[in-house]
Design a protein that fits this description.
With 364 residues, the protein is an alpha/beta fold. Helix content is 30%, strand content 18%. It has two domains: 80 residues, no CATH class; 238 residues, Aldolase class I (TIM Barrel), CATH 3.20.20. It has a ten-stranded mixed β-sheet with strand order 1-2-3-4-5-6-7-8-9-10. The protein has a three-stranded antiparallel β-sheet with strand order 11-12-13, with no helix packed on it. α9 packs parallel to α11. The longest helix is centred in the middle third of the chain and has 13 residues. It is globular and about 65 Å long.
Length: 364
């Protein structure tokens, strides 16, 4: 999907052009890939789970690779409909509706809330944990809804952090984004704003000086982005991350463990070390949630534990994320890591070293 002449143009570097020329149907994909199958047969998939891909993200695909990790993340697949009938999955496995105290506001943990600030994303990732919202909007749409949320926050001073999610909050207009940030920042009990975004990965040219200038005004702010594979790290994505970091906004990364995409040691080692070099902290490695339409992306939990065990002492501790499972029915995040502590006795603790030896630590 390379077109070097186009990618060197000013149009290509314009996020407005990218959004205007986004691929919105399987028929467009069929034309771009010059084939009749499988894309033209996927109108049924689209009716459940629509398509949206920026030309930039599409350009990262190697069409000669039938298992391209970018293609598998963004191209519709008939498996999504087969997965949708799984009895072990649901549209809302984390019970977000149960904890939605107001339209668009989820209060699951005592000291923080999640605000669904935007409906759209630059790319509809096929493993998305909110696929249910693609056709049924749950994000806030009015200033009145935002005012109700601010009233709730004032009545709940235990909430010290507000996480903007969606959709992708950085898809909002600057005016709308700043309205949300300003109103939240004015609440004295809210100490930190966090934004979850995949824009540095899927539409890095959207990280403009104007956007960075707005975000900088509302520090302390943290941004969690979402790189899943080393192929997503490009000069443009590096530049986008650098702009945010240089504005004093720390970046962390949340990777989802995806079957046949990144579920091996070498891929994740390369991803995490590259992020480390970009000053983007590998924060979480998520077990893929049990979302209807995503079963084919999930691996056994043991796969993740094995990879974490291989990473330990193979790369710097700063490169290693926490491997977590977001438990069904709103159970929250559970840390799932290899255990090196084998036993604790009155006089000593017994450990297994990273290379399989037994070590004793004598208690004082």
């Amino acid at each position: 999907m390379k077109n070097n002449l186009l990618q060197d143009s000013q149009e290509w570097k314009s996020y407005q052009w990218q959004l205007k020329n986004s691929i919105l149907s399987a028929r467009e994909l069929s034309h771009l890939f010059n084939c009749k199958s499988p894309y033209t047969t996927l109108s049924e998939v689209e009716s459940f789970y629509p398509v949206r891909i920026t030309p930039y993200y599409l350009s990262l695909i190697d069409p000669s690779d039938p298992h391209d990790p970018i293609a598998m993340q963004c191209l519709p697949d008939i498996k999504e409909l087969n997965d949708a009938t799984s009895i072990d999955s649901s549209p809302d496995p984390l019970a977000e509706h149960k904890y939605m105290v107001l339209p668009g506001l989820i209060h699951r943990y005592p000291d923080r809330v999640l605000l669904l600030a935007a409906h759209e994303c630059a790319v509809r990732c096929r493993h998305c944990n909110r696929k249910r919202t693609w056709k049924n909007r749950e994000a806030i749409t009015t200033n009145a809804q935002l005012d109700d949320i601010c009233c709730y926050l004032k009545k709940h001073p235990e909430v010290r952090e507000v996480i903007l999610s969606g959709g992708d909050p950085l898809m909002l207009s600057l005016e709308k984004l700043e309205t949300i940030l300003a109103k939240i920042k004015a609440i004295s009990s809210v100490k930190v704003i966090r934004i979850g975004t995949r824009i540095p990965v899927t539409l890095p040219m959207k990280i403009t000086p104007e956007l960075v200038g707005v975000l900088k005004k509302y520090r302390p702010m943290w941004i969690n982005t979402h790189f899943n594979h080393p192929k997503e790290i490009t000069e443009l994505s590096k530049k986008a991350c650098e702009a945010l970091i240089c504005a004093g906004i720390p970046l962390s990364n949340q990777t989802v463990l995806l079957k046949n995409i990144n579920d091996d040691f070498e891929t994740l080692k390369e991803l995490f070390t590259h992020l480390h070099a970009m000053m983007v902290r590998p924060y979480y490695l998520f077990q893929c949630d049990k979302v209807a339409g995503t079963d084919h992306f999930r691996t056994p939990i043991s796969t993740g534990i094995k990879i974490m065990e291989q990473l330990w002492c193979s790369i710097s501790g700063l490169c290693i994320p926490k491997f977590v499972v977001d438990l069904p029915k709103g159970g929250g995040k559970a840390l799932t890591m290899p255990s090196y502590l084998l036993a604790i006795e009155e006089d000593k603790a017994i450990f297994r070293t990273y290379d399989g030896k037994i070590a004793y630590y004598m208690n004082p």
